[in-house]
């Protein structure tokens, strides 16, 4: 029974994603409510949350919604318009402008900058 | 039956999506970058960093923003506010027409002529009946320089009244007092460029990562590329800034003066000071008498790190280590904001940081500076430099300086004696004395506010609301706010990208924003509003820039401003609009001529053009000796020296006691700007902090039986708020924190804050209040993203 439910869930999700992309629009799979994205995602996508936390974006407070939008303008893969906000030169220099920055710069650890670059001696 | 919870379901979904992305190409190709009609150069609307931006315009609307890669402040990067919050300019709540409150308490939309005639008639009436000081202006570090200059001129030169204030009094006045008293002239010696050259960064009273994120990014990159660089953070909360820190100096709020003295003592006792620098460039003084290094050591004798630990809770070992790193690094830079300024000893706290730099010679060399980060985008350029405070005139010179007053009167073409030599009321006194016409204890009968929201942002609000309610209040703003709820007239303002003008940021850098689009509805630039009021009061000659071309008005005001301040240490005479339009990164003053590149370091031979500025030296009677490499030319004693001040220890105005056993401190969070009137209207931002909350240490929460999310009342002698508890380790036990952006009445924490002011700067002690707490109930959903949308709503 459990296996059937899981198969059903997987099928439904694939259909949902396929449908969304067919229309060229991302849909957040859940009602977002009013809370910060991380309140759910720290639990449901802990690896992504941790990657983000240790990235340059995590250090400077560029949170989920800055790139992925809110409920009404949600995008699964941020467009280059978003990246351009801070990385205008890089977007201008992109030799394949039709390709998303995120294609090569994988979420969410797309920088050489990592928490382990710091070696705090007294701040625990 | 498998138990599928909501979270399990999402987890499964994400796993599915991940799998699908491997097997199926579901990642869409990016759409090409959106084409815009033009990119217009400008500055960011938010904090004092001064990030350069390009504003994307399409079909007469702003549709995008991106960082300016050529900007020397941000190098193209933007924080969440800069990137998203401009979108508020098209929010349906924008005020689009002038309104006058009617007898039934409701606003009626009127024409601009009706509104301006009404305001001018009221002003004339109050002037005639109650005198020149009965009408006041309360502006903002977010107005354009041209706007602040115009209102300042209208009031001081037109009305002969110094009742001119602005919200920088609430944030930067202590920094001004610190720079003026130590160095003789406002604003920093160095620049942001020192960050990347520094070997030790002392971040004190500043949650840089949230309040100046782009500055923090620069510090972060510098630390990453140079792991030997030491980062010291000194403040009561272990904020996100400490993520990159090597050392945290936790202190009880308001006690850090003792820590700074202990650092100085350790430096002197261990012979880590720079005696040559001290002897050549400084004067050690208590403000009255001058002493020597031995006298300084004697003054500091009780500030041993061990004694100071007992007073402040800052570990003695941390103090010693910080002092050692600071003195021995080779290039130390301090950066601070409200944690030092919003205090009853704010000026002294600033002086003591400057002391550390002066005794170690940590100035002038690359990477060494004592640098105040400004909170607002144009507190420096617009308010401090134009002198738009009750005690100042353009050029940051005091109104009681006879020679400078005469100079300004001549430049403004007004009769000698027009400008009152007596300072007006500082902000807290201004609102204390503002009230009903028939109340003899309230000499201020009318106030016009621009780009600020005092009915939410003043401390100890209970004391000031009635005055705003009863007096004649004109609010110039872009949205309904707590202040418009108390106003008699509301005038719809243009957003920065609808009007243009100059902003001057923390590092003495002025940048021009070009007008990008037409304002929404009938909104108008503040400079136009000021000029129209002037015209109606017979002061058209004084404020002639009253055309319908806002950039022309701006340019006229700017041209006059840089002429008036031409021969000052703040000169921007070399930065006319024709040049500002071309400069991609703005210009740092002093900039005396159009061929001068601007100044990276002040007071330093070969770097600072004022050393050779003959008209400046003649005007202020300055003689720079040929053998001085460094010279603080605005030193009042004409010795070119900076003051090392022996300031006695003093704690906060209010310390915890048996009835109010906690310290409360307040501040900003990265997404939210001030009272949230703009940022809370951006869904992505509102989601990040949909309500105010109370941060409390786990030990304190346990003691009071408080669990995460429980509703807790926090009360001072002045007022109370009820907020959900956030239990965090990142603060000292006994210290509570609340962000202040929430507009909901129950959660407006400024009812609780202290309005006691610094005796020098008159800046109130927002940062420290003694409070008590009690649990009111279990968790309640208050994530309502509350904003005031209805212009006719009540202040309740």
Helical stretch tally of chain B? 25
Could you say how many structural domains of chain A there are in total?
1
Low-confidence parts of chain A lasting 5 or more residues at pLDDT below 50?
15-23
Taking the sheet with the most strands of chain A, its summary is: none
Q: Could you report the average pLDDT of chain B, rounded to the nearest whole number?
A: 95
Write the layout of secondary structure elements.
The complex is a heterodimer of chains A (124) and B (796).
Chain A lengths: L1 H21 L14 H8 L1 H8 L2 H4 L4 H5 L11 H5 L3 H6 L7 H4 L20
Helix pairs in contact in A: 2-3
Chain B lengths: L5 H18 L14 E6 L8 E7 L2 E7 L12 H5 L14 E3 L5 E3 L2 H19 L4 E5 L5 H15 L4 E3 L6 H11 L16 E5 L3 H4 L1 H13 L4 E5 L12 E3 L6 H14 L5 H7 E4 L4 E2 L1 H7 L5 H8 L3 H13 L3 E5 L1 H4 L4 H15 L8 E4 L6 H6 L7 E2 L3 E2 L3 H11 L14 H6 L13 E5 L3 H4 L7 H6 L1 E6 L11 E4 L8 E4 L4 E5 L12 H11 L13 H15 L12 H6 L4 E2 L25 H7 L21 E4 L16 E6 L15 H6 L5 E3 L1 H6 L6 E6 L4 E8 L7 E5 L29 E11 L17
Parallel strand pairs in B: 6-7, 6-17, 8-9, 8-13, 9-10, 11-23, 13-14, 17-18, 18-19, 24-28, 25-27
Antiparallel strand pairs in B: 1-2, 2-3, 4-5, 4-19, 11-12, 15-16, 20-21, 21-22, 24-29, 26-27, 26-29
Helix pairs in contact in B: 3-20, 4-20, 4-21, 5-14, 8-11, 8-12, 8-14, 11-12
């Amino acid at each position: 029974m459990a296996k059937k439910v899981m198969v059903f869930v997987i099928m439904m999700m694939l259909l949902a994603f396929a449908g969304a992309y067919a229309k060229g629009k991302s849909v957040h799979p859940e009602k977002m409510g009013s809370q910060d994205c991380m309140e759910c995602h720290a639990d449901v996508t802990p690896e992504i949350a941790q990657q983000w936390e240790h990235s340059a974006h995590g250090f400077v407070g560029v949170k989920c919604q800055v790139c992925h939008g809110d409920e009404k303008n949600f995008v699964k893969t941020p467009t280059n318009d978003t990246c351009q906000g801070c990385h205008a030169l890089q977007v201008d220099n992109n030799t394949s402008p039709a390709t998303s920055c995120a294609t090569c710069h994988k979420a969410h650890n797309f920088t050489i900058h990592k928490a382990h670059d710091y070696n705090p001696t007294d701040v625990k | 039956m498998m138990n599928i919870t909501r979270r399990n379901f999402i987890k499964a979904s994400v796993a599915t999506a991940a799998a699908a992305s491997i097997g199926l190409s579901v990642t869409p190709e990016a759409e090409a970058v959106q084409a815009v009609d033009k990119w217009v150069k400008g500055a960011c609307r938010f904090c004092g960093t001064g990030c350069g931006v390009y504003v994307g315009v399409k079909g007469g609307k702003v549709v995008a923003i991106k960082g300016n890669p050529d900007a020397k402040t941000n190098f193209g990067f933007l924080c969440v506010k800069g990137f998203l919050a401009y979108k508020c300019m098209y929010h349906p709540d924008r005020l689009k027409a002038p309104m006058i409150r009617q007898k039934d308490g409701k606003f009626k939309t009127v024409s601009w002529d009706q509104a301006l005639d009404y305001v001018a008639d009221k002003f004339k009436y109050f002037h005639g009946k109650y005198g020149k000081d009965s009408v006041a202006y309360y502006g903002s570090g977010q107005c354009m320089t041209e706007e602040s200059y115009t209102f300042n001129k209208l009031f001081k030169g037109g009305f002969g009244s110094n009742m001119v204030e602005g919200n920088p009094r609430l944030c930067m006045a202590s920094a001004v007092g610190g720079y003026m008293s130590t160095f003789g002239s406002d604003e920093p010696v160095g620049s942001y460029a020192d960050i990347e050259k520094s070997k030790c960064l002392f971040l004190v009273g500043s949650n840089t990562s949230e309040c100046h994120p782009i500055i923090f990014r620069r510090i972060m990159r510098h630390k990453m590329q140079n792991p030997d660089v030491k980062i010291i953070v000194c403040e009561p909360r272990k904020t996100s800034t400490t993520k990159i820190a090597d050392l945290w100096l936790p202190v009880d709020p308001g006690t850090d003066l003792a820590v700074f003295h202990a650092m100085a003592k350790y430096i002197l006792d261990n012979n880590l000071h720079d005696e040559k620098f001290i002897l050549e460039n400084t004067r050690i003084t208590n403000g009255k008498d001058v002493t020597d290094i031995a006298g300084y050591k004697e003054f500091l004798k009780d500030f041993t790190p061990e004694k100071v630990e007992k007073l402040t809770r800052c570990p003695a070992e941390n103090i010693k280590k910080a002092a050692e790193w600071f003195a021995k690094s080779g290039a130390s830079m301090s950066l601070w904001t409200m944690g030092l300024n919003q205090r009853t000893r704010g000026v002294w706290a600033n002086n003591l940081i400057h002391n550390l730099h002066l005794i170690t010679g940590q100035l002038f060399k690359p990477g060494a500076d004592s640098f105040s980060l400004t909170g607002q985008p144009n507190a420096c350029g617009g308010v401090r430099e134009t002198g738009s405070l009750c005690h100042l005139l353009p050029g940051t010179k005091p109104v009681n300086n006879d020679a400078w007053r005469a100079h300004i009167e001549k430049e403004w073409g007004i009769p000698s004696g027009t400008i009152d030599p007596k300072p007006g009321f500082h902000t807290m006194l201004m609102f204390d004395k503002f009230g009903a016409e028939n109340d003899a204890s309230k000499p201020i009968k009318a106030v016009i506010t621009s780009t600020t929201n005092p009915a939410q942002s003043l401390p100890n609000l209970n004391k000031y609301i009635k005055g705003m309610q009863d007096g004649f209040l004109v609010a110039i703003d872009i949205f309904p706010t707590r202040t418009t709820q108390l106003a008699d007239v509301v005038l719809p303002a243009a957003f920065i990208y609808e009007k243009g003008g100059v902003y001057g940021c923390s590092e003495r850098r002025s940048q021009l924003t070009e007008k990008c689009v037409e304002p929404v509805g009938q909104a108008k630039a503040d400079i136009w509003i000021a000029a129209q009021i002037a015209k109606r009061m017979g002061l058209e000659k004084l404020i002639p820039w009253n055309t319908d071309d806002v950039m022309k008005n701006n340019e006229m005001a700017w041209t006059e401003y840089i002429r008036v301040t031409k021969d000052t240490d703040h000169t921007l005479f070399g930065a006319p609009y024709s040049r500002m339009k071309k400069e991609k990164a703005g210009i740092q003053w002093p900039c005396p001529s159009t061929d001068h590149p601007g100044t990276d370091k002040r007071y330093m031979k070969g770097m600072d053009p004022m050393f050779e500025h003959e008209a400046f030296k003649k005007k202020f009677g300055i003689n720079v000796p040929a053998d001085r490499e460094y010279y603080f030319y605005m030193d009042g004693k004409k010795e070119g020296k900076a003051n090392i001040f022996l300031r006695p220890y003093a704690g906060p105005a209010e310390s915890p006691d048996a009835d109010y056993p906690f310290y409360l401190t307040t501040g900003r969070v990265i997404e939210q700007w001030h009272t949230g009137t703009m940022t809370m209207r951006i869904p992505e931002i509102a989601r990040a902090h949909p309500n105010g909350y109370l941060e409390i240490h786990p030990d304190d929460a346990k003691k009071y039986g408080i669990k995460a999310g429980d509703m807790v009342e926090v009360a001072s002698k002045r007022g109370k708020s009820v907020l959900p508890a956030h239990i965090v380790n990142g603060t000292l036990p006994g210290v509570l924190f609340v962000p202040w952006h929430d507009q909901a009445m129950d959660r407006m924490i400024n009812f609780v804050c202290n309005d006691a002011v610094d005796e020098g700067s008159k800046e109130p002690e927002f940062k420290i209040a003694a409070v008590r707490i009690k649990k009111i109930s279990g968790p309640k959903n208050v994530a309502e993203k509350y904003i005031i949308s209805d212009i006719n709503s009540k202040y309740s």
